[in-house]
Automatic annotation (TrEMBL):
Gene3D superfamilies: 3.40.50.2300, lambda repressor-like DNA-binding domains
Gene Ontology MF terms: DNA binding
Keyword tRNA-binding listed: no
Every HTH lacI-type domain range: 16-70
A Pfam cross-reference name: LacI
Organism: Actinocorallia longicatena
SUPFAM superfamilies from the UniProt entry: lambda repressor-like DNA-binding domains, Periplasmic binding protein-like I
The protein's name: LacI family DNA-binding transcriptional regulator
UniProtKB keywords: DNA-binding, Transcription, Transcription regulation
Length: 349
């Protein structure tokens, strides 16, 4: 019979596993690896707790077998090149990362999340994580036309799932939404309500999905013979969404409807309309994108192009897990965002 552990007394060397250390410390095996190898990715408090448990159990990590030690194999990387302050206010990535985590937890994997200022920094982080063995693969987001990550990361042989239309992702396995179909549905709905002048407040023009939405918007406006209206680019923040809305409502050819590229900007636009004395929906109809809880908290509640962002993140993680397991590369769309009409849209006067 094996005697029970005695606190403070080390067990014989070779009898303790990394899994036991992780269980005792209440963390993943990947977190233990990061702590004992003095790698970034865990807090100082967590690192100290892991090291204390390792000392109590008398555990010592074995010598890595090569440049990619299996001890460091329980992590997936996600790097987002956006300001931290803006990201903290963006419901999309909160839901998206929660969906990723829900799948990783089933496999005792952890998500390494890093915010950077530019794409070259993102490339360096992914490269460093992969070469040091800190990650088994990565999820790539926010693709641009001729995205530099494609050429830089493909030679690494790192398992990757790209979140973006295949036309943008350079052959990486990808998962995406049909943004063009969603924009078309939104504009056709507003046209059916009698809106002849619909404007759009979009995200950064450099992002590939912004370009897809803009082209679809211009195409359906032309097909329906509607009055031309601008597509304004922003950084997705409430501040720039508000500024764009003021510009539109102060113009000589004021739109009767506005389609926004995220919920934060639509909420800001609703506030600007009230500030300028423009009644929603009597004089102006608004449609948001993503349909987070914010859309139901406004008065009137916001109509939205709704999709399950949590499920989107979960699907990206499932496909990456399949790639890590050596399965065949598998790309495919998730359900297209669908219109949910609420109190912010009505027939045009």
């Amino acid at each position: 019979m094996t005697p029970p552990d005695v606190p403070g007394r080390a067990r014989p060397e070779g009898k303790v596993t990394i899994a036991e250390v992780a269980a005792r410390a209440g963390v993943s095996k990947g977190a233990v690896s990061l702590a004992v190898n003095d790698r970034p990715g865990v807090s100082d408090a967590t690192r100290e707790r892991i090291l204390e448990v390792a000392r109590e159990l008398g555990w010592r990590p074995g010598r890595p077998a090569g440049p990619r030690s299996p001890v460091l194999a329980g992590n997936v990387g996600l790097v987002i090149a956006r300001p931290a302050r803006m990201l903290a206010l963006e419901p999309f990535y909160t839901e998206f990362t929660a969906g990723i985590e829900s799948v990783l937890a089933e496999r005792s994997f952890s998500l390494l999340l890093r915010l950077v200022g530019a794409v070259d920094e993102e490339i360096a982080v992914h490269d460093g994580w992969w070469r040091s063995g800190q990650t088994r693969g990565s999820i790539l987001v926010d693709f641009t036309e001729d995205d530099p990550r494609i050429g830089a990361l493909r030679p690494l042989g790192m398992p990757v799932i790209a979140v973006g239309h295949p036309g943008l992702t350079g052959g990486f396995p990808s998962v995406w939404t049909d943004d063009a179909a969603a924009v078309t549905e939104a504009v056709r709905y507003l046209a059916a309500l009698g809106h002849r002048r619909t404007a759009r407040v979009g995200g950064p023009a450099a992002l590939g999905h912004s370009g897809i939405r803009t082209r679809a918007f211009d195409r359906v406006v032309a097909e329906l013979d509607l009055e031309p209206a601008p597509s304004l680019s922003t950084d997705y923040s409430g501040e720039q969404g508000a500024r764009a809305t003021r510009t539109l409502l102060a113009s000589a050819q004021r739109p009767t409807a506005i389609l926004y590229d995220n919920d934060i900007m639509a909420v800001a636009g609703l506030s600007v309309a009230a500030e300028m004395g423009v009644s929603v929906p009597d004089e102006l109809s608004l449609i948001a994108w993503d349909d987070s809880q914010l859309c139901g908290l406004t008065r009137p509640s916001l109509s939205a192009m709704s999709h399950d962002v949590f499920a989107y993140g979960a699907e990206a993680a499932r496909r990456l897990m399949a790639a890590i397991d050596g399965g065949p590369e598998c790309s495919g769309p998730v359900p297209t965002p669908a219109l949910v009409p609420r109190g912010s849209t009505a027939r045009a006067r």
